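To illustrate the input format used throughout this study, we show a single complete record. The first block contains the structure-token representation of the backbone; no residue identities are included at this stage. The design step must infer an amino acid for every position from geometry alone.
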């Protein structure tokens, strides 16, 4: 009987010991609650103890968590409304304060409250700048301002906001089509201006080309007339020399040329007197011009 009692006591001690020990993982923090009140905070990994059947252990993630915020409709300083999507990264810095702030709701309640904080701070910060600053690629300063503004309020929840990022910044759907139409009209106006400038440049090129053609043709005609005049002068000089060297031969040559030019074609007809001077060389048996009688 004594042995059974000892075994029972040892067994009960082992059970109580087992129920009194819990393990804190390196990725989490733990709170020991006694009747709903925090009696101990376990932040270091390893074994920890509690009072069995009285104390309860609540565990919270100690890693960096993220939350998606948005879409948020903001009105910048230039009254051009935008829809912003953002996300934030945070961690539970003060687990005891976190428990007091969210109660049994845990991460879900914390995300909901942090979402409201980030939404309000995003609207406030982006409302002080122009839409060009928000849409520009260099907006790290704006995200830092949102983070710094949210840090103070998040500390009341036991949270430490590590980073805030703007994922997307777009126009509201009702303004998007109007913006596209305005951009299309602007591009069409620029295209019309470019075509007008192109046509103007083309007209200048054509006018310059036409003037160049006229100048070249005029110069070519002038040179041709000069060459033709020089050739005619040289030809006349040759004829004059030939006429002076043998007048009879020159007269004979001119008569043959006249015959050739007047009798061209298949249906040429001439009506002349038989004793016409036109045939004086044809009537001569020697081909010489008849002697002129006084």
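Output of the design step:
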């Amino acid at each position: 009987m004594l042995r059974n009692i000892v075994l029972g006591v040892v067994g009960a001690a082992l059970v109580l010991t087992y129920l009194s020990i819990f393990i804190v993982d390196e990725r989490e923090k733990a709170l020991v609650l006694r009747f709903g009140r925090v009696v101990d905070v376990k932040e270091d990994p390893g074994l920890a103890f509690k009072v069995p059947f009285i104390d309860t252990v609540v565990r919270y993630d100690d890693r960096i968590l993220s939350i998606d915020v948005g879409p948020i409709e903001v009105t910048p300083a230039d009254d051009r409304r935008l829809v912003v999507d953002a996300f934030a990264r945070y961690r539970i810095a003060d687990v005891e304060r976190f428990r007091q702030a969210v109660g049994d709701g845990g991460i879900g309640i914390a995300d909901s409250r942090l979402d409201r904080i980030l939404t309000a701070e995003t609207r406030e910060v982006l409302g002080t700048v122009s839409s060009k600053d928000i849409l520009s690629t260099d907006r790290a300063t704006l995200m830092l301002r949102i983070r710094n503004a949210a840090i103070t309020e998040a500390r009341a929840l036991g949270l430490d906001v590590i980073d805030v990022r703007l994922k997307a910044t777009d126009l509201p759907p009702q303004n998007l089509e109007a913006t596209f139409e305005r951009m299309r009209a602007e591009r069409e106006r620029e295209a019309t201006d470019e075509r007008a400038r192109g046509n103007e440049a083309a007209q200048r090129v054509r006018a310059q080309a036409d003037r160049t053609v006229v100048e070249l043709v005029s110069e070519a005609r002038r040179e041709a007339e000069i060459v033709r005049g020089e050739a005619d002068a040289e030809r006349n000089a040759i004829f004059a020399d030939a006429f002076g060297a043998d007048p009879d031969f020159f007269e004979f040559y001119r008569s043959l040329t006249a015959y050739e030019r007047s009798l061209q074609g298949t249906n040429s007809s001439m009506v002349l007197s038989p004793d016409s001077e036109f045939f004086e060389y044809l009537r001569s048996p020697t081909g010489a011009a008849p002697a002129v009688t006084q």
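Structural context for interpreting the output: DSSP finds eight helices and eight strands in the chain. The CA atoms of residues 196 and 202 lie 10 Å apart.
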